[in-house]
UniProtKB/TrEMBL annotation:
The keyword DNA repair does not apply. Pfam families: DeoRC (PF00455), HTH_DeoR (PF08220). This is Lactose phosphotransferase system repressor. GO terms for molecular function: DNA binding; DNA-binding transcription factor activity; transferase activity. Repressor of the lactose catabolism operon. Galactose-6-phosphate is the inducer. The keyword Transcription applies.
Length: 254
């Protein structure tokens, strides 16, 4: 089977089944583990499917079935690292920042320059974990109802607390951006991010290129109302021009 035919077959199988494992593809196509993994990586890089641990998931399936936190951590890592590195450069001495839930936001701490005077507020337990050992940071975890799937604290208690706080900068993620709509899978998680964004002087959304022109369940904010969209540098000129209509687009360094 030629490579092009193999890629088309993989794409078709993923679309039909929603989620498929590497082993199933090996059995179906009769090629090596390494070949299947390379093919899946190539299809994921071109936005044809989503790479998950041990296999792949269709784009359509992922819009209807939110990936778990562990699954999200394992996909598009290089693109997330680019964006997190760029976001970290915006944090300055003396800032009070909000960091919303999300696997890209969890990477910001590792790229932060040496800063001795910083306050970090989050309603994400994984983000709290990533910051807890950093010295000279005033770290605040906002409580509420715990959402296992993302590790976020949400609901009335979280929103009431966030409503009383003011931030120099807020960094939030999305499950999808389509035109001026910023979307996520869970209404309560979206509401908490919206409250924090409304209380921030600078509103910054982080979205890798695979989130752009993609829909999800709940529109929680308008792209017109944020200051920056940080995304990957290899988006097309057409996409860049389109999204510059709504906000300033900051391309991460390669």
């Amino acid at each position: 089977m030629l490579k092009r035919e193999r890629l088309l077959t993989i794409k078709k199988l993923v679309q039909e089944r929603g989620i498929i494992t590497v082993k199933e593809l090996i059995d179906q196509l009769g090629v090596s583990d390494m070949t299947i993994r390379r093919d899946l990586d190539e299809l994921a890089d071109s936005g044809k499917l989503i790479r998950v641990h041990g296999g792949a998931q269709s784009i359509d399936s992922s819009e209807n079935n939110e990936l778990s936190h562990i699954e999200k951590k394992e996909i598009h890592l290089a693109e997330k690292q680019q964006i997190a590195r760029e976001a970290a450069q915006l944090i300055k001495e003396g800032d009070t920042i909000y960091i919303g839930p999300g696997t890209t936001q969890e990477l910001i701490e590792r790229y932060l320059p040496a800063i001795s005077n910083l306050r970090v507020v989050t309603n994400s337990f994984p983000i709290f974990q990533s910051w807890k050992n950093r010295n000279n940071v005033d770290l605040i975890l906002v409580g509420g109802n715990f959402r296992q799937r993302s590790g976020a604290f949400i609901g009335g208690l979280a929103n009431d607390t966030l409503a009383e706080l003011k931030f120099n900068k807020a960094f939030v993620g999305v499950n999808g951006i389509h035109n001026d709509s910023m979307m996520t899978a869970n209404t309560e998680e979206g509401k908490s991010q919206s409250v924090a964004l409304n209380n921030a002087k600078e509103k910054i959304v982080l979205a890798d290129k695979f989130k752009i022109n993609r829909d999800d369940f709940y529109q929680f904010y308008n792209l017109y109302d944020v200051d920056y969209l940080i995304t990957n540098p290899d988006i097309s000129e057409e996409i860049l021009t389109h999204y510059q209509q709504f906000t300033k687009v900051k391309l991460a360094s390669e």
